[in-house]
Amino acid sequence: MDRVSSAGCVVCGAPSAIHHPRFAVGMGQRSPHWLAIGLCPEHHQGALSIHGSKRQFESLYGDEASLLAKTIERVFCES
């Protein structure tokens, strides 16, 4: 998770926190730590964020699966 956080926000590159996508688990459960996406506070929990306005966010930046793929590419392939 340190590598994901250090890579920055997958949307804008700003310093990031960890977002655990929910597509891989049931409601009320968190994804495993190896399924993590780096998102800055604005893109994680701001007005136009994955938690604030998920449909609008996904229409602009992609769904959680595509953001996870970008994160994996950034963290493991560009090193």
Overall tally of domains: 1
> Which class of secondary structure composition applies to the elements?
mainly alpha
Strand proportion: 5-15%
- What oligomeric state is this? single chain
**Poorly predicted residue ranges:** none
Strand line-up in the sheet with most strands: 1-2
| Radius of gyration, CA atoms, in whole angstroms | 12 Å
Report the major sheet. 2 strands, antiparallel
Number of strands: 2
Task: Choose one word for the global shape.
Answer: globular
Assigned CATH class: Alpha Beta
Can you tell me the CATH architecture? 2-Layer Sandwich
Q: Care to describe what's here?
A:
There is one protein chain. By secondary structure, the chain is mostly helical. The protein has a single domain (2-77), classed as Herpes Virus-1, CATH 3.30.40. The protein is built from four helices and two strands. The protein has helices spanning 2-6, 41-45, 54-61, 64-77; strands at 17-19, 37-39. It is globular, with a radius of gyration of 12 Å. 25% of the residues are buried. The model has no long low-confidence stretch (mean pLDDT 87).
